[in-house]
TrEMBL record:
Family: Belongs to the FAD-binding oxidoreductase/transferase type 4 family.
Keyword annotations: FAD, Flavoprotein, Oxidoreductase
Superkingdom field: Eukaryota
Gene3D superfamilies associated with the record: 3.30.465.10, 3.30.70.2190, 3.30.70.2740, Uridine Diphospho-n-acetylenolpyruvylglucosamine Reductase, domain 2, Vanillyl-alcohol Oxidase, Chain A, domain 4
Cofactor(s) required for function per UniProt: FAD
EC number: 1.1.99.39
Cited function: Catalyzes the oxidation of D-2-hydroxyglutarate (D-2-HG) to alpha-ketoglutarate. Also catalyzes the oxidation of other D-2-hydroxyacids, such as D-malate (D-MAL) and D-lactate (D-LAC). Exhibits high activities towards D-2-HG and D-MAL but a very weak activity towards D-LAC.
One Pfam family recorded for the sequence: FAD-oxidase_C
Protein name per the record: D-2-hydroxyglutarate dehydrogenase, mitochondrial
Gene that specifies this protein: D2HGDH
């Protein structure tokens, strides 16, 4: 069996037998899904670019059940695809062939929350938005936020080391995740679910699993440090006449808003047009070459408002921004955020999307967009740039009516070579999954790739966990 389009051959794993199904039924009674219609949504990724043909999906509720499932799969040499909310952008969350889908959807319990330290411990299948809602009731928030919050699971966020919209303020999950419980490929439970801020006892094993995309173990529970809910949140959208002005606005923002700055996102005019056209969202800011969304989060409304008005005066007066709209209430703040958060959705409605998620020196962040527009000409419907400018993370997306091999050849390896030429990263936050596994070498030296392969062989000697993903096909 070969996935022709991706030139990948099925590895010699076993196929699920009647006896396997009976064993699964004993471990997770009534939670073994084999109905093809029910399986369909879990076999296809969010971007609808990849489709597997798994015939079994398992829905454990406990770590013990995950452990028994993996012990069985390990003994029988059955391949397993861990799946959270299936919102991943690189085809890591769906099977390539007939891997068993191990869903965390029913592992959705909060285990504990300490209201002085702000440390939350929960099962991996908790939905990000629900965790945030739970915390808000206790005057805390999650340290991460992303457009997929309504579906993605915290386990999936940790497995992809998701960045998102609050990264600028609260940093990486590599800092905020304090502990993990993970089930290894052979079913052994690795309990590193500590809730300590400081713990220098030997190697920090949880870091191996953060960003490992389901290839080293199944994350079953997460301990995470959550910040207090800010008293005052302001959101503003600005129009900028050029990218140089976007950069200067960012510098001014850091200088003048300092400790209260909590997001600095940008999008270009084509993004805004697509959001307006496909989602019928209205922008309060007139047509501009660029837009920036600025958010502040602080503890004193009056203090923040003063700072923000000083900043507005400066950027409007100096012509860095041509127009601005500040949200006066939560409803408008949500509306402004929607213009940015829903870009992904708007682009997907427009056609086939070639998606690149790269880290670059911020000064050069937009050059590749301009360069590609000239290079591709009319063969692309749109070439757009948006993303987490404050983190040096560009989302470069090229849209065409349908997939075309010649357009792909014009894009790759060009985009990756361009990125490597800037000492950038070919995956800033989405991971490598199935789509990008073979481009790891553009951002990591061969010795690093070899160590990764040795770690994989050590933790998953039979290679049953999320095969065909993250690591290059060949060393
Ligand atoms: P899935 O998609 O189900 O899985 C992703 C990967 O993690 C797969 O390789 C899977 O095998 C593995 N995995 C899942 N759960 C586990 C587990 N418990 N144990 C081990 N492995 C597991 N990403 C960003 O970084 N920043 C963004 O701003 C952002 N915005 C997004 C906006 C939209 C609209 C969408 C659709 C996606 C966005 N993403 C973003 C992509 C991002 O990777 C995911 O949304 C999210 O982190 C994945 O969580 P999930 O539960 O959906 O995982
Ligand atoms: C975003 O920032 O909107 C996400 O990472 C998704 C995307 O890149 O489209
Ligand atoms: Zn992003």
């Amino acid at each position: 069996l070969t996935q022709e389009r991706y030139r990948v051959q099925r590895l010699p794993f076993s196929t699920v037998s009647k006896e396997d199904l009976a064993a699964f039924e004993r471990i997770v009674p009534g939670r073994v899904v084999t109905d093809p219609e029910e399986l369909e949504a879990s076999n296809v990724d969010w971007l609808r670019t990849f489709r597997g043909c798994s015939k079994v999906l398992l829905r454990p509720r406990t770590t013990e059940e995950v452990s028994r499932i993996l012990r069985h799969c390990h003994e029988r040499n059955l391949a397993v695809n861990p799946q959270g909310g299936n919102t991943g952008m690189v085809g890591g969350s769906v099977p390539v062939f007939d891997e068993i889908i191990l869903s965390t959807a029913l592992m959705n319990q909060v285990i504990s929350f300490q209201s002085v330290s702000g440390i939350l411990v929960c099962q991996a299948g908790c939905i990000l938005e629900e965790l945030n809602r739970y915390l808000e009731e206790q005057d805390f928030i999650m340290p991460l936020d992303l457009g997929a919050k309504g579906s993605c699971h915290i386990g999936g966020n940790v497995a992809t080391n998701a960045g998102g919209l609050r990264f600028l303020r609260y940093g990486s999950l590599r800092g905020t995740v304090l502990g993990l419980e993970v089930v290894l490929a052979d079913g052994a439970v690795l309990n590193c679910l500590t809730s300590l801020r400081k713990d220098n006892t030997g190697y920090d094993l949880k870091q191996l699993f953060i960003g490992s995309e389901g290839t080293l173990g199944v994350i079953t529970a997460v301990s995470i440090l959550c910040p207090p809910k800010p008293e005052a949140v302001n959101v503003a959208l600005f129009g900028c006449p050029g990218f140089a002005e976007v950069l200067k606005t960012f510098s001014t923002c850091k200088g003048m808003l300092g400790e209260i700055l909590s997001a600095f996102e940008f999008m270009d005019a084509e993004c805004m047009q697509l959001v307006r056209h496909h989602l019928h969202l209205a922008s309060p800011v007139q047509e501009s070459p660029f837009y920036v969304l600025v958010e502040t989060s602080g503890s004193s409304a009056g203090h923040d408002a003063d700072k923000l008005s000083g900043f507005l005066e400066r950027v409007l007066g100096s012509g860095l921004v041509t127009e601005g709209s500040v949200a006066a209430d939560q409803r408008k703040a949500k509306m402004l955020w929607a213009l940015r958060e829903r870009i992904t959705e708007a682009l997907s409605r427009d056609g086939y999307v070639y998606k690149y998620d790269i880290s670059l020196p911020v000064e050069r962040l937009y050059d590749i967009v301009t360069d590609l527009r000239a290079r591709l000409g009319p063969s692309a419907k749109h070439v757009v740039g948006y993303g987490h400018l404050g983190d040096g993370n560009l989302h470069l997306n090229v849209i065409a009516e349908a997939f075309s091999a010649s357009l792909l050849a014009a894009l790759e390896p060009y985009v990756y070579e361009w990125t490597a030429g800037q000492q950038g990263s070919v995956s800033a936050e989405h991971g490598l999954g199935f789509k990008k596994k073979d481009v790891l070498g553009y951002s990591k030296p061969p010795a690093a790739v070899q160590v990764m392969q040795r770690l994989k062989a050590l933790l998953d000697p039979k290679g049953i966990l999320n095969p065909y993903k993250t690591l290059p096909t060949r060393a």
